Structure formats: structure tokens, C-alpha cells
Amino acid sequence: MERSALPQGGQILLTGATGQVGSELLETLKLLGEVIAPARTQLDLANPASVREMIRAVRPRWIVNPGAYTAVDKAESEPELAYAINAEAVKVIGQEAKLLGAGVIHFSTDYVFDGTGAEPYRETDAPSPVSAYGASKLAGEMALADSGASHMIFRTSWVYGAKGKNFLRTILKLARERDTLRIVADQFGVPTWSRDLAKMTAESIKHCEAVAESGELAAVLADVGGVYHAAGAGETTWYGFAAEAVRLQRELHPKVRFAEIEPITTAEYPTPVRRPLNSRMNCDKLFARFGWKMMDWHESLRRVSAEI
């Protein structure tokens, strides 16, 4: 990608730059132009005034918001904080972006659905969250849409990478410490590589800038904006993901002993919040609009495994 994607003077304001997706976005978006990535002490998503002040100070052309409250179980006991970060902050981002004429890219989740569907979810399927976390993320989507800001929302699932806190890193750590790991085998979804998600985001911005006329994003995003599903290709279960991850590590480190992976049901591993049995997402719209196909989870896992 070239550095000329943004018009002269255009900047990208990135939230959550130290997070799993944010750190990948920081590196990828730098290839498009100047990225402003304030620390949490400078931009506190739990504080609407902080969000508003930062946006007004920077006056960015794009606001990219991977920052979020993601503690699914903990959100049940502190829903106010979850809503402050996942909904109220997004409302302010939308309001300020509307005033500036800036484009917004916001990330959401499969948890806006109840996970009972039999097919991969499409963007046109009605959301029905069953947790405070999912409800707060849906509220954020709605607040952004209601703000009138030019925007794209990318719903994703099972995000992981070589860095940060995620299922893969946890499993591989435990697999070196224990003899057996029992992993849920009746929840279906697709692992999504944080770097693939970041690259897709950069390409989406690049596409919009390439077709923008007179430097205005509103008309472009009026056409291509809205909700997109952006998750890895293929499908598996948490058990399938863990088993393949350990298999690859055995190939890479034949002298290291790893735990055996055993399948269990959701009922055998109760959690405070019911996890979706179906987190699969249909990403045809993303390919049709931007020509981007998310990476198959087997391939992304192979690449991430080599980095860990």
C-alpha cells in the first residue's frame, strides 16, 4: 500500500492502539498516512468528554474505533461501564464525526446475535443479544447509525493473534503446563486473525479514498457504508481450533510435550454468560463490495503459530 491514500493533511485517529486489533491497525494504517493513537490517559472511552475533546483537537479525516469493553462475563456485574465504552463513546464519536465530515470505522461482534441460528449470520438478520456485553455492542452500532455520521461497522468473531490476550495464547500456555485440556466442542464459529482484520480495514479506507470526489467522504460512504460481517473463512469449534493449534505446535517443537485435547459439551463448562452455539458469519457482502475475502482459519493459524 502507498502512503498517498489519504489527502494531504488527512489524519486517522485510532482508539485502543495497545489492544489486540488496535496494535495491528496501528502498523497497517501507518501505510496510508498519519495515525494519531492516543494513550488511554489521553483518550478515555469511558469518559465522553475525553472522547469529544480528543476528536476536536485532532480533527481527523477518519476515526477507527477498535477500542471496546470485551469482558463478556464481567459485563453482567458492571453494565454501566460496558455501555459507557461500547455505546456512549461510540455515540460521541458519531456526533463529532458528523460535525467534521469524518468517516468512522467501528468494530462489533457476533454477540449481537443469540447464537441459535442454524446458518451463518448475515447482516440482514435481526440482532438479539442475550448478554450485557452483546447488548452494549448493539447499542453502539445503533448509536453510530443514529448519529448520521458516515461509517462502516465490521462485525467479527473469535479474534486472535500472536500478541495480546486471546484463546490461542491461553490454550498454548496451558498445553505446556497440563496433561489434558477439556475444550468445548459444540460451539461453532471461525477464528479471525487480528492482522487480517487490520489489513481488510486499511483496504476499505483505501477503496473509499480512491473513489472520493473533491475530498468528500460522505457520498462514498453513503454508498458503501453500513454493517459488514468480517470473520475468518471456514468453520470449526473451540475444540477444533485448540486441537489444530496444538498439532501445529507439536510439528514446530517436536521435543516439547503438549497436553492432550479432549472434547466436552457447553453444559460441561458452564459460564456466567451463555456463549453462542453458532458464531458463524456470512461475509459475502464484504467480498461483493470490496473484493476482500477473509483468510481461512487454517492458513491464518499456521502463520500465527510460526510467530508465537
- In sequence order, what are the helices and strands, one letter per element? EHEHEHEHEEHEEEHHEEHEHH
Number of strands: 12
Please state the oligomeric state of the protein chains shown. Answer: single chain
Give the proportion of residues in helices: 40-55%
Enumerate the spans where pLDDT stays under 50 for 5 or more consecutive residues.
none
What average pLDDT do the residues reach?
96
What is the general shape? globular
Rg computed from alpha carbons, rounded to a whole number of angstroms: 19 Å
- Here the CATH topology of the domain at 11-164 and 192-233 and 281-293 equals Rossmann fold
CATH class of the domain at 11-164 and 192-233 and 281-293: Alpha Beta
Strand content: 15-25%
Q: Please name the fourth-level CATH homologous superfamily of the domain at 11-164 and 192-233 and 281-293.
A: NAD(P)-binding Rossmann-like Domain
Shape-level CATH architecture of the domain at 11-164 and 192-233 and 281-293: 3-Layer(aba) Sandwich
**Spatial strand arrangement across the major sheet:** 2-1-3-4-5-10
| Class from helix and strand fractions | alpha/beta
How many helical stretches?
Answer: 10
For the sheet with most strands, the description reads:
6 strands, parallel
Distance between the termini: 26 Å
